Amino acid sequence: MKWLRNLWRTLNKPARYLTVGTVALSAFIMGMIFWGGFNTGLHHTSTQEFCMTCHTPDKAPTSELMKTVHWSNNVGVPATCPDCHIPHDWTQMMGIKVAALRDIYGQITGTIDTPEKYEAKRLEMATVVWKMYDRNKSQNCKNCHQYKKMKWDEMSPMAVKQMKPAAEKDQSCIDCHKGIAHHLPKMGTSRAPQLIAEVGQGVTPSAGQNYYSALTKELFEGPTGKEDAGMLNIATKVKVVDVKDNRVKIVINGWRKRIGAGRVIYRDFGINILSAQLTKAAAKHDGTIKVFEEKQDPMTGLTWQRVEVTVWTAKDYLLNSNDQLWSYAKDTYSTSCSVCHTQPEPGHFDANTWPGMFQGMLAFVNMDHDTTALVQKYLQEHSSTFSKSGKH
After folding, report:
1. Arithmetic mean of pLDDT, 76-87
2. What is the fold, at CATH topology level, of the domain defined by 323-381?
3. Potential cystine with 167: which of 106, 147, 210, 368 (Cβ 3.0-4.6 Å)?
């Protein structure tokens, strides 16, 4: 026991019983042992074998990866899980390691232990990865795929047309290349995955309250059945007047042009901001549209009618506020619409000018249908028509 007491005494007060050189050497050796063990742990948890202890080859996502060129190719250079999911930058790597604690908890509790559970969470998980790639401009891809090493003369004309502008602004690969290693989530008909995953969830509509549509939504003539009444545009304000099972009865206030069946509903008089497009049958159906007044547009000579539209829609993807929608649209406009030049401020044009200007930019960006409609509406509703600042 004497040697144990001496050891404890020395470790408790090393400066009293050991020389400075001995203390320094001991601290250095212990530091090396700790750092070596720490890095060994980092290396072990950054291997394909470690990933596959949970993500076994017979289950998604590994089974999906093994069917792609990233896993097996004619040059024998695979991209493993860590290559794509663990950043090389040390600070970012540690952030991912800490965030992975959530994955361990999910593995223990069986969050995705069945194919059905996995599919239900696929969109949420994909969105997390896509956000990481947005933040670091797809650096994990660029560790292997470097713009400056690409041989443009050996690419197809279509590939050059797409890739050269991307290279000039060091565009994030994930902007265009989703679903190359794992199956894409079910996102509906060309709908923005970020919107589906982040907004329109957890809101229970109640009668008498106002809401905003988080996506383009189908309209119906009744609380049941499939009688198509048209489409409700994204970011449109509606008032819920009744709730029946999975549908809500909504009222849309707006204006229409007195042309034909008057199926297209606009946000305001003389302003071409789309709120809804009804089918011809729904527009002519008694009780669907109520007309209050008529006004002539001095600019075009067209007669407009202030109307109230009453239809049904599914109760999902309705928001209490449009703040999240505008924030998403603003960020998308800022990051995606600067391929050729600095994008103008929303207040640079009026609401009726923006659609033509914006549609002319779409050939140079990669947006799905809902994102396109949302960004255009954002620009219109923040245009000089509504914001008199005239900021350019």
Report:
1. 90
2. Cytochrome Bc1 Complex; Chain D, domain 2 (1.10.760)
3. 147
